[in-house]
Every structure is written in C-alpha cells, then in structure tokens.
C-alpha cells in the first residue's frame, strides 16, 4: 500500500512547489522616491525553482482592487537569473508626481500568480510631489493610493 502512496505524494509535492514558485519583489519600498528622467531601481529575490523564465514587470497605479497599467517596464526577463536584479530603468514623466506607483511582476502573462512591490513615489525632476488622493483603499486598508498616468 505504501508503494502506491509514494507516487501520489511526489505528484502533490511537485504541484505545491510549482504553486509556490515565484520571484519575490524587495524594492522599491515604502518611502522610496525616484525622479522622473532618472534611474529607477527594481529588485527581487529570484525564483529558485526555474519556473519564472519569462517575467514581465509593469508600472502600475490605482487601488488594490482595480489596478491600472501605466506602462510595461520590461518583458522576457529570466526571473531565475540573479544577474538581472537589481534592474535599472529610466523613470517616466508621470502625472501626478506622488506615492501612488508600484510594480507588478508576472510570469508568461499569468496574473493569477502576480507579485507586487509596495507603493513608492515618482517625483518631478526637481523633486516636487503631491500627496496621494486617497488615504485608504476602497476596502478600508490604510494604504494611500491614487491613479496616475503618463
């Protein structure tokens, strides 16, 4: 009987490892400020299972329950390669300049296992910012937000 359970256990463990295989965003963090036209840094802990080989990073805005795409930052990245993190790119000119932006990481376009950074600020080239329009999420969570764009 035990010899029959072993393959089932192996299949279950394989399913669990693929379900939990992911990159883990580590930067930017709350309070980080980047300036339009300057370098923005994104960092993550790599996927060690070999699953995230076609990763995309999108700049997002909006509330947690209705996120809005601002622009794609990168696609086709190998999320298992430690040589790609940190990733630097030029922050865009956005409106408004505020702490309402975050990154979404997806693998093969699959949003069901998406990962996100916390919100951070994109400021004007001179450092000007405005506070987020909303102090709490629609569900009441104390996470300030607003909706921005290019």
UniProtKB/TrEMBL annotation:
Signal peptide residue numbers: 1-21
A Pfam family matched in the record: Kre9_KNH
Start and end residues of each Yeast cell wall synthesis Kre9/Knh1-like N-terminal domain: 28-122
Region (Disordered): 125-150
Keyword terms of this UniProt record: Signal
Comp. bias intervals (Polar residues): 125-137
InterPro entries on file: Kre9/Knh1-like_N, SRP1/TIP1-like
Name by which UniProt lists this protein: Yeast cell wall synthesis Kre9/Knh1-like N-terminal domain-containing protein
